[in-house]
Amino acid sequence: MKMREMKIPEKAPQSGALWLLIVTYAAVGFSIYFSLGVVAKRGLGLTPLIFVGTGVLFVITIFTYFEGSAMLRERGGSSSFARHAFNELVAFVAGWVILLDYLIVIALAVLSVPHYLRPITGNIHGTIWVPIIMAAVVVYITALNLIDIPARRRPRFLVALAAVDLFTQVIVILIGLIVVMDPESLTRNIDLFSSPSIRDVIYAGVVAMLAYAGIEAVSNLAPDLDLNPRQFSRVITRAVWIVPLLYALMAAVALMAVPVHQGPDGPVTNLGSIYIEAPVLGVVDAFHPEWLSTGLQWLVAVVAAGTLTWAANTAMLGVSRHTYTLAVNRQIPSWLGQLGRRYEVPYKAIILCALVVFGLAMIRDVEVLAGIYAFGATLAITIAHLSVLRMRRTMPDAERPFRAPLNIRIGGAERPVTALVGAVLSSLALVSVLIFHDAARWVGLGWLAVGLVGYVIYRLVVEQVSLTKQVTVEARALTRPRVSIDFHNILVPIFGTRIDDEIVSTAGRMAAEGDPEERGAHAVMTILYLIEIPLTRGIKDPLPEEVADEAQRVTKRAKEVADEYEDVEIRVKIERVRRKGTGIVFAARQLKADAIVMGAEPPSPIKGGSQFGGIGDYRPEEIGPVTAYVLKRAPCRVLLTAPRTA
Prior knowledge:
Helix content is about 60%, strand content about 10%. The chain has 24 helices and nine strands. The strands form three sheets. A five-stranded parallel beta sheet has the order 7-6-5-8-9, sandwiched between helices. Helix 22 links the parallel strand 6 and strand 7 (about 570-575). The two termini are about 25 Å apart.
């Protein structure tokens, strides 16, 4: 699959902390544009301290994610960690809530774009232009992810955009510290345990996790970092602290520019009301003199709109990768992860998710969306911490290019204190979400319940596999590569062996590739299961129950794999024959097949290998008698799938 990755420059070790800071900000820095207002609404003057507190959780969580990703050398974040530490069911739970968070992040970015364009478009709040602009952004990012446009994934462009965004935020902070410096305004309306209340502080603290919405994306950098353990530790521990520091400084400037004041029902800030959809724009709107404020508003409008649109595009790319991974691991139906014919992307998942994103954005309530995000984030992060802790015991000798700091020995294995603390804090945050956030509680638990019910039905009823065991479909089954020969009537003999799935997938891809307009007929794949009847019994005698059951089981499984190719008509035949070779050849003639796709069965231990001449990469002794007979007698092309060797 052509999944786009941001490659690490060859000189990453030399660029060190500064480079990691920029790419980290590319993944998480955009969220300040919509998280600041919703946190300030409840946190009031304590908002900077709240960002500092959640920043500590962000840092220790980064340590956990980087240890897991660098050790496993694969992407997937907490879902991947859970697969190795626990089982497939826990991995699905993590993966399913991560998917929800991706959708929420895209929706928040899409919702914020029209409000940040106010200096350019004028005040369009409450008009039809807001949903029109949101729809345009959704269509744009959907098109980018459906069409393979090389420019959209250039790492230099992404790093440049992140650098501009980082520069803009630093400029706002520095200018703000000059023109609105008033530290007393931060504490003027604070009344401990009352304004804000403990509940409001907890609420705001959990929602503040929205500021680090790209933490899964940041962890995906780890497999690409070509650093030794010492460099890893030095670069990461230096870079990640800058992110929460900048967030706290931005919050401090924001509360000095748009301070808390007494409203009809108590202390409030316009950051959480008038400017909640575009809080950074509200900050620079309060600067003086007017010419400075106007210039910064235009700068913020252009940079924020561009950054948020690109962040939404990147998150949609994360959705496509994520659904593909879930489909490959048989956690969701494979048709959702099926890749397109021309552009190898999971187009069905992208289109479906785009519709969901637009529906979420149309809620037009940042606070509700932030709470739902917090549910998924706290659950996924808790699973990540617990997974890394468990892998320290179950995989003690695995190479770890980066190890989370502050380790203590517990239960015969070294455990990182950061992961222990992180697991406790994130689990408590999850409990607070369930207690204090009504929308997050019902939507989050509902999303999880729907996913689990679907997972159980799909695994137990459709796939008939264990809920906890990892079962993967060949990644090639989700691809549709072009072939040079058009086969649209294919016979697929199966024998109940371990390579039946691969044989059927190969035939399905070949059948699906044909052009219906050119051939004037739809593609047909006939799955043939032959029951060999010895000469001592009549060909129509009743079959032993176990033989009949095996025939039904094998053909049912083959049809399930074949059904992944929705444009192909699937037929199933169970035939009784004296010799399998003659049965296959007879069926090919009767069906007028264009090709036979079958496995090259090993040679008979009694008769030895066929004396048929070498074929392709096969030596004579490697081809069994059935394969040899079909190759000699078949009225059409024969394509062999070799059994994998150990």
